[in-house]
Design a protein that fits this description.
The complex is a heterotrimer of chains A (about 625), B (about 325) and C (about 450).
Chain A (H helix, E strand, L loop, with lengths): L1 E6 L3 E5 L5 H7 L18 E6 L2 E2 L11 H5 L2 E3 L4 E2 L3 E4 L2 H4 L4 E3 L6 E3 L4 E7 L11 H11 L8 E2 L2 H13 L3 E9 L2 E9 L7 E7 L3 E8 L4 E9 L9 H35 L6 E8 L1 H7 L20 E4 L12 E4 L9 H10 L7 E7 L2 E7 L4 E7 L19 E7 L6 E5 L7 E2 L1 H13 L18 E2 L6 E5 L10 E4 H25 L6 E7 L1 H4 L3 H6 L11 E5 L1 H11 L1 H13 E3 L7 H9 L11 H14 L1
Parallel strand pairs in A: 1-7, 11-13, 14-17, 17-19, 20-29, 22-31, 23-25, 29-30
Antiparallel strand pairs in A: 1-2, 3-5, 3-7, 4-6, 8-9, 10-12, 12-13, 14-15, 15-16, 18-19, 20-21, 21-22, 23-24, 26-27, 27-28
Helix pairs in contact in A: 6-7, 8-13, 10-15, 13-14
Chain B lengths: L15 E3 L13 E3 L18 E7 L7 H7 L6 H10 L5 E5 L11 H14 L4 E4 L4 H14 L6 E5 L5 H10 L2 E5 L4 H13 L7 E4 L9 H16 L9 E4 L7 H4 L6 H19 L1 E6 L2 H15 L9
Parallel strand pairs in B: 3-4, 3-10, 4-5, 5-6, 6-7, 7-8, 9-10
Antiparallel strand pairs in B: 1-2
Helix pairs in contact in B: 2-3, 3-4, 4-5, 7-9, 9-10
Chain C lengths: L4 H7 L13 H9 L13 H8 L9 E3 L6 E3 L17 E7 L4 H13 L2 E3 L2 E3 L3 E5 L5 H14 L4 E4 L3 H11 L5 E5 L4 H11 L3 E4 L3 H13 L5 E4 L5 H16 L10 E4 L6 H10 L4 E4 L4 H14 L12 E5 L8 E5 L2 H14 L3 E6 L6 H6 L5 H10 L2 H4 L4 E4 L7 H8 L2 E4 L7 H9 L3
Parallel strand pairs in C: 3-6, 3-12, 6-7, 7-8, 8-9, 9-10, 10-11, 11-12, 14-15, 14-16, 16-17
Antiparallel strand pairs in C: 1-2, 4-5, 13-15
Classes of the chains: A alpha/beta (about 625), B alpha/beta (about 325), C alpha/beta (about 450).
């Protein structure tokens, strides 16, 4: 057996003599780009022999190499056989095409190309004949081992001070960590011996309610741990507005610390579960809304929430994580997503890159629903965005028996149009306690299909049925009688609940239409509607269309991207190229203030109908409802 | 030079018939066929669209009526049938709009008397009638049923359906072949929504008159004006759910500050001018029935509408 | 119809060079589309692109200023046929007509009335705009005398109406520098009339029969160097006026016939139905309306109609936020919160007055948006309510802490309670039900 060591990762593998380097690489779990399938035809699998004995017919494949490359020991991995122990350098260009990663929430692959990398180097000690300084020696070594050009690497003083000792103590075998920073590269860390397989990064979704952390092995391109916890700022105020008000009363320092602490807690939990040292986390990427990002960075958010709604900073920021209290490697960097406006923040930019709408010619509509909603319409050339208050109805608030997606919540309902008896399923399959937002959307769609409510959402009290009642304050429909519930009360939906739901859905639809009108785009030109946020995961697409929450397009053109913020943060963590595009995307997006848009009121009123006042916009729904009506006679 | 005052429109205001003559199964001296417009009001030339109709509003319990009208009409207001007759013979109204204000009494339940009132007004005047039923959802069903029943064959215009209560009135209109007024709060979309609701429970489009709600001049009229223009505009562009004639009744005109606080000797004038200016603007915006409360406004509006149709009547044609 | 932002964006260079002052071509396109930026700010557009874009923003109807000084007014520069498409910008001047056959006293009295009469509605002063003096005597001398009488009594915009060149010359010696509107040039006399107005650079009314004749006349005057023109359409009836003015407006705003892009003059005094004519003039595109002095009822109705029609439909009339009293409310009277959309306020106030229950109305600043819209757009929120309660010192006006909010703002009730510490009662959606609601719900308290 012969040992092949692959650089720069220093991955070792034993293979029988005569194996190809390609075989060895594949067995070591390194994906090498072989377009031709390993037949020596494409010339893509170029590697460099650093030391050891191998057989390769350079003359036969001359056409693939420059003279310079040949001097460096270039050969084709598929046509080179291992004869003795080898050290082989795999250049990035040979890897990148292949080592793609499928990220949760995104259906296309992305290259592993993080902005921080480790380089293990074995240096020749200085001699009288070669007395070049330690730093030069180190950086040239890194350059030689595949790193950036020595002149472009900035070395901070703290690292500089450690160089002489470390080099000599380790017998000139060290691992340097190089980060891509604005304006060039930075040697962020130097360690003794080979630590190149210990390099991690964290992607963070900094939400106002929860914080989600993903820890990635940046060498292998794998998620090693995931953790989430509540945002500890909740102690200073339930919603964003309350927290900004808290910040105004000298509370910014505390809010900043709590944001950092929330992230640290998630990072600790995740790194503990994966058994990794926090010192090995070299980079943190954070996607959060505009206010959250300001608070994390300790920037006053007061001016964002009041007219004229001005953020302090919109562009992406790179800072030292330690300076804002995030615990990782002492020189860990932190990258914060850019924002567009007060409401369209880094979380939405993250949604955009995770659904990929900014890469296509086709027009997409992105909707992120929570208590507030954000909508983005556009393609790779242009994008319009807006935001508004959806009201809490879709999250189960302001609805008598509405609730969050907790056990016992009804999340799916159908109603028999003849008997009016509902069939529902609850979370964890226990007796019902209430109804979630997605359950409410089902309910609304089913009630209109069964002609229990009219298109304005009013209950037809002339229906004589035990489930249709006048109620204490409003007419109501009984979803579950007390005996079948877990709360000992009838679970009902009142006409008032329905009104609130219709108001919420009308705001969202009106926002979509306002953007579409601004762009001059009709529903036919929308290729895909993406739902971001937890809300979308449980949503019945057909019912969402029936009630007119979204413009009617083909049901197969509606996609859920789940937590787009974390997906986007993941992308920006593992691929430095993505990160470069963020500021451009943010700049491309024009923000439309719905308050200042005169037609919004009109669009809103016409959306307060099921599905919409202009039925020609919902031909599928119209046909469906007509059929329901016919069936019922 | 070519110009097109039809703006390339394809839609038409659908026809609605009000009243029925003997030959048509009723007892009215005429039936009005309104609607039919293919462009903005007063721009149709071949054939010219019909003049807007002027309705005088009366009631069966004057306690709830404007003191200005009570003062002007004197004892007339105590008997709805005399009042209706005078509206036709003296004031020259095209339509009588009877408000059953008696139903506003607390715990009103005398449905029989409602039937009698409607019958006697039908006898007192030969004009087609608009009947405004109850203001109380509790008795809606009985009141509309009774009105519809006693006036069967007369092709009444029944008021008023709203998005929150339209089923009772629609049931009566369908059962006895009357038309109804569909009122929505000053918004083209809300007007359309109500028309769809009515259509879906079986009211035919040619039995609906849109009331987009008319705010008094200076008190929301600017919204009503544009709501009417937009409804007409949408109808002409081909939206059949808005292609019905409109009625405008600025009922607050007699209660607004300018009228209330006018010098006593000018109060009638102020009330009349307020109704008059509003009525003209509403007609130009698209209303085909202008409903007023002051008897003096009736003649003024009728003269004005007649002159809108004439080709030359200026005192000094230069 | 104006171009959409995206249509404009496609014409722009898409360089995002920021030289226009905007961060991107798209945001610049949005500003262009809404008329908030000038095409010339973009240094990379060629002339054809500029004219394409410029044509959509340049007013299709010329702006004409009548008179000088405080009471002068401008008309024209309109863009739409329907006010709901955008707005009507320049309300018509309504001028009272005097005849030079009237006595000096009569003329002076009308002049003083226009000078002094103010009718205030919703914080705005409504006035008539000036005096039209007609040379009905035919005498240049009498005309000059009448003009002098008006001039002695007020600095008001004037319209001078005559068929006598000499009368104009004599009158203009006195008032030519005050930019009166001169009525009128016809196909027969336009050269002489142009010569007269050019001396003082006054605006000129042109009179013709049929739109073809107007085009010729407007061109001819323009060639004579007179471009400040106003058109007297010479309608034969009120119905004729509706057709003519609609046709002219339509052809002008679509830029189909640029030579009709002038404001319209309408003499309501020619009609038997003066009030109907004034109302028509206001709603159907007249910019100068002449009428005999109006009795008070007609005067108020006319000015109110003009105010209504020339309100920007996209910027509703707003009330000043504050705490308003209905009746004489005591410390235990109910407090009702609503928005500062004037129509909401007036409607609610009306129903409250008729309910005869004294109460406080807390009007919060939603920039004139209605309840429904301000809730949807997030303008009406708990912070606004909280701040308004503090700002208008509601806590010291009443002895309780219960707030009645509009039915359509029900979704905010919980948050308002939380932030203000007040108990919230959700009122009816329809203002008409407020009386009953107060009777039934408030009295229970």
């Amino acid at each position: 057996m012969r040992t092949v060591t692959f650089l720069p990762g220093y991955r070792k593998i034993d293979v029988p003599r005569g194996s190809t380097i390609l075989d060895a690489a594949q067995r070591a779990g390194i994906s090498i780009n072989v377009v031709c399938g390993g037949q020596g035809k494409c010339g893509k699998c170029i590697v460099y022999l650093q030391s050891g004995r191998a057989e390769f017919d350079q003359q036969k494949y001359l056409r693939f190499f420059s003279e310079d490359e040949l001097n460096k020991g270039a050969c084709l991995a598929c046509e080179t056989t291992v004869q003795g122990d080898l050290q082989v350098l795999i250049p990035e260009s040979t890897l990148i095409q292949e080592q793609k990663i499928l990220i949760e929430g995104r259906d296309t692959q992305i290259e592993l190309h993080p902005s921080v990398r480790k380089y293990y180097v074995e240096l020749e000690p200085p001699t009288l004949a070669d007395p070049s300084p330690d730093l030069t020696r180190l950086l040239w070594g890194i350059q030689k081992w595949g790193g950036p050009v020595a002149e472009k690497v900035y070395v901070p003083l703290e690292v500089m001070r450690e160089i002489p000792t470390l080099l000599r103590h380790s017998n000139w075998r060290v691992t340097g960590t190089i980060a891509l920073v604005p304006g060039g590269y930075r040697l962020v860390d130097l360690q003794e011996n080979d630590t190149s397989n210990r390099i991690f990064g964290a992607a963070i979704d900094l939400g106002s309610t929860t914080v989600v952390a993903y820890i990635w092995d940046l060498l292998r391109g794998k998620v090693v741990a995931v953790a989430s916890n509540y945002n500890k700022q909740i102690s200073c105020g339930e919603d964003i507005l309350a927290r900004v008000n808290f910040a105004k009363k000298n509370g910014l320092v505390k809010l900043q610390a709590l944001a950092a602490e929330s992230i640290n807690t998630a990072l600790t939990a995740a790194s503990n579960s994966a058994g990794i040292d926090r010192e090995d986390i070299y980079e943190v990427v954070v996607a959060g809304n505009t206010v959250m990002t300001h608070m994390l960075l300790g920037i006053d958010p007061a001016y964002i929430i009041a007219e004229p709604y001005v953020p302090v900073v919109q562009r992406a920021l790179s800072v030292a994580a330690g300076r804002i209290g995030i615990a990782g490697n002492q020189n860990c960097g932190l990258f914060a997503f850019p924002a567009v406006s007060d409401f369209i923040g880094g979380d939405i930019i993250a949604d955009i890159i995770s659904c990929g709408m900014s890469e296509h010619d086709e027009i997409s509509l992105l909707i992120d629903i929570g208590t507030n909603f954000e909508v983005v319409l556009g393609n790779k050339e242009w994008m319009f965005s807006c935001a508004g208050a959806a009201g809490p109805a879709l999250e189960g608030g302001e609805v008598l028996f509405g609730m969050r997606a907790n056990p016992g919540a009804i999340e799916k309902i159908t109603i028999d149009p003849y008997t009016l008896d509902p069939t529902y399923s609850t979370i964890n399959n226990i007796k019902p306690r209430g109804i979630t937002g997605s359950g409410l959307i089902d309910l609304l769609a089913e009630l209109i299909s069964a002609c229990v409510i009219d298109r304005t959402g009013r209950i037809n009290t002339q229906i004589e049925h035990k489930r249709v009642r006048t109620g204490a304050h409003f007419p109501e429909f009984v979803v579950a009688f007390a005996a079948e519930t877990d709360i000992g009360k009838d679970i009902v939906i009142t006409e008032n609940d329905i009104k609130n739901l219709i108001m919420s859905k009308a705001s969202i639809h009106a926002a979509c239409v306002t953007l579409m009108k601004q762009a001059g785009v009709t529903r036919h030109e929308i290729n895909t509607i993406y739902f971001a946020g937890a809300f979308g995961n449980f949503l019945n697409k057909k019912n969402a269309t029936i009630i007119g929450l979204i413009p009617e397009i083909g049901l197969d053109q509606i996609k859920n991207i789940g937590n787009g913020a974390i997906t986007g943060a993941n992308l920006a963590l593992i691929n430095r190229g993505v990160r470069k595009t963020l500021d451009d995307i943010a700049k491309k997006i024009a923000y439309i203030e719905l308050n200042a848009e005169p037609s919004f009121m009109d669009e809103y009123t016409s959306s307060t109908f099921l599905p919409h006042t202009d039925l020609t916009l919902f031909p599928m729904v119209q046909q469906l409802l007509d059929e329901c009506r016919l069936r019922k006679g | 030079m070519g110009y097109d005052l039809h703006f390339g429109w394809t839609g038409v205001i659908g026809p609605v018939t009000l009243g029925a003559t003997k030959a048509e199964g009723g007892t009215r001296k005429m039936a009005y066929h309104i609607g039919g417009g293919t462009t903005l009001p007063f721009l149709d030339t071949t054939p010219p669209s019909s003049s807007p109709l002027v309705a005088l509003e009366i009631c069966d319990n004057p306690e709830y009526w404007s003191p200005i009208v009570r003062h002007f009409c004197g004892d007339l207001v105590t008997t709805a049938d005399d009042w209706a007759k005078t509206a036709e013979t003296v004031y020259g109204a095209d339509l009588v709009r009877l408000y059953l204000t008696s139903t506003r009494e607390r715990n009103f339940s005398d449905i029989v008397s409602i039937g009698k009132t409607v019958e006697s007004v039908l006898q007192a005047t030969a004009l087609p009638l608009i009947i405004e039923g109850s203001n109380e959802p509790r008795i809606d069903s009985d009141v509309f049923q009774k009105c519809g029943e006693v006036a069967q064959g007369e092709k009444l215009l029944l008021g008023t359906a709203e998005a929150s209560r339209y089923r009772s009135i629609a049931a009566s209109a369908i059962a006895y072949n009357h038309s109804l007024i569909a009122q929505s709060p000053i918004d083209v979309n809300l007007a359309k929504q109500l028309n769809i609701l009515l259509r879906e429970i079986g009211v035919q489009r040619d039995h609906i008159i849109i009331d987009p709600y008319t705010g008094a001049l200076g008190y929301g009229f600017e919204y009503s004006y544009s709501a009417m223009e937009r409804i007409r505009f949408s109808a002409l562009k081909g939206d059949a759910d808005l292609g019905m004639p409109m009625i405008s009744s600025a009922i607050d005109s007699l209660n607004i500050k300018e009228v209330r606080e006018a010098d006593p000797e000018q109060q009638d004038d102020m009330a009349v001018q307020w109704e008059y200016y509003t009525g003209i603007a509403a007609a130009v915006a698209g209303a085909e029935i202008i409903s007023v409360r002051h008897p003096k406004t009736v003649g003024l509006l009728k003269n004005a509408f007649a002159s809108f149709k004439k080709s030359a009547d200026f005192s000094e044609v230069k | 119809m104006a171009l959409k932002a995206l249509d404009i964006y496609k014409i722009l260079p898409k360089k995002n060079c920021k030289e226009c002052g905007d961060p991107t071509c798209l945001t610049f396109a949005m500003k262009l589309a809404s008329g908030k930026a000038d095409v010339d700010l973009c240094p990379h557009l060629d002339d054809s692109a500029k004219s394409l874009l410029g044509a959509t923003t340049r007013p299709p109807i010329r702006l004409i200023k009548i008179g000088v000084g405080e009471r002068s007014f401008a008309v024209g520069e309109e863009f739409v046929l329907y006010r709901h498409d955008k707005t009507f910008y320049h309300p018509p001047g309504i001028l009272f007509k005097v005849l030079d056959t009237q006595s000096d006293e009569e003329i002076a009295s009308v002049t003083k009335r226009v000078r002094d009469e103010i009718f205030t509605r919703i914080g705005t002063d409504l006035r008539f705009n000036g005096i039209a003096i007609e040379n009905s005597s035919g005498s240049a001398e009498k005309f000059a005398q009448a003009v002098a009488t008006v001039e002695e009594n007020a600095d008001l915009p004037l319209v001078l109406i005559s068929k006598n060149f000499e009368a104009f010359n004599e009158a203009l010696v006195q008032v030519g520098s005050y930019q009166p509107l001169i009525h009128a040039a016809t196909m027969e006399n336009f050269r002489e009339m142009c010569a007269i107005v050019k001396k003082h650079n006054c605006p000129l009314v042109i009179k013709a029969y049929g739109l073809e004749e107007f085009i010729v006349l407007a061109k001819s005057c323009s060639e004579e160097g007179v471009k400040k023109l106003v058109m007297d359409l010479c309608p034969q009836s009120l119905g004729d006026y509706i057709m003519l003015s609609t046709a002219v407006r339509q052809l002008a705003i679509t830029r189909a016939v640029p030579d009709l892009g002038y404001p319209v003059y309408f003499d309501a005094a020619n009609s038997q139905l003066q009030d109907a004519a004034i109302a028509l003039g206001i709603i159907k595109y007249a910019s100068i309306i002449i009428t005999p002095p109006l009795p008070v009822a007609s005067a108020k109705a006319a000015l109110t109609l003009r105010q209504n029609i020339y309100t920007d439909p996209q910027k509703p009339i707003q009330m000043n936020p504050g705490l308003y009293r209905v009746g004489a409310p005591g410390k235990d009277a109910p407090v009702l919160m609503t928005v500062n959309f004037s129509l909401t306020f007036f409607t609610l106030e009306g129903y409250l007055e008729s309910s005869r229950i004294p109460c406080f109305l807390l009007i919060v600043d939603t920039e004139g948006l209605s309840v429904l819209t301000s809730v949807a757009a997030g303008k009406l929120n708990e912070t606004l309510v909280h701040d308004s309660i503090k700002k208008f010192d509601v806590e010291n006006e009443v002895s309780h802490k219960t707030l009645i909010i509009p039915g359509y703002s029900a979704p905010l009730s919980g948050r308002i309670e939380e932030v203000t510490g007040w108990k919230v009662m959700v009122g009816p959606r329809d203002a008409a039900e407020i009386g009953k609601y107060l009777q039934e719900e408030w009295k229970k308290q």
